[in-house]
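Technical note accompanying the year-one report. For the benefit of new consortium partners, we illustrate the data format agreed upon in the data management plan: each record pairs a sequence with a structure-token string. No post-processing was applied to the example shown here.
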Amino acid sequence: MSLRFYFSILRSLGAVFSGRKLTKIGTLAVLIEFLRSKNILDFLRKPRTVEEIKGYIGGVKREDLLTELLTVLARDELLVRKGEKYVTNEKKINEILEQYRKTRLLEEGSRGLRFGFSSRLSDAAVEILRGKNHKFTDAVIAITFFSQTRSEAYNFGRKLLLDLGGGKKFFQNKTILNLACGFGAEPAFLYTYLDGKCTLILAEFFENILEQCRQHEFEFKGEKIRLEDLPNVDFRLFDPEFKEPFDISDESVDIVFSFQLLHWTKHVPEIAKESYRILKDGGVFLSATPLKKDVNELHPTDILIKLIGGYKMWSEDELHKIFYDAGFRDISIKYSNFIVARKWIA
């Protein structure tokens, strides 16, 4: 899919919106699903104070996160603030959901999250508000993202990221580190998209996910194959706390491809430094993650990330500085989601 097609999607809401605007609409739709699934919107049909909302949810220890959630929803008019109380704004909620439905790819991309929040993911979010730590490896979160990462929207994003990095022909016959390869849908996409003309190093931080990736079966040129049976695919397990460097030699990789990872971890500086170390001269780091313009901006996606056990929504300036400090000089950030950083040795 071309960049022209990307902009046709942005126009499908009736105006040319930025990637940030689309991300915001999708996130608000998911947050609405969360509030509905736990009957919080119904509870807020009458004006309620923060203390009353805390009492309704029960056992809230992350009052900071709850306050941020209410503040964002009031600012974006899904709730109306009346003094110290909040009340549901049904008109605005319906307006957001209508905008969301008009953008097919946006709906496709967040369908897994909306479904998750209509079922067990909402329970996990409430547990996080109550002080529990959830991780990507927790079953309820992992299952949701297993369906999410196989979506048409995710594959569209991967194609767009590859286009921004140089295009299909540039990536063929290269060594690619797929960092946080997940359950196998992403490396299967990369292998198929590049017609098998690549060497893939599939790296994960959690052994159970890497094992499922090994077993992932997909169709290639009319045959069913498993990733672990491919001769040009290797698997690596990395330390999630980054106490150990990546098990990869210096300047041995052409591309580091990391899709939807950076908002899950505080270790982005280590990722940038290790990526710079292992990339060849002229190599490129490619990543997609939701980004905000200002580090102090209170963004609904930031709240959503924290509610599902992630770390935070980074700002564009934060990531630019992190990759610059790691040694990269050719750094570009596109559409509030995509990072392309090239390594040039002077």
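Partners are asked to follow this layout when depositing records. The chain has two domains: 17-133, 155-300+310-343.
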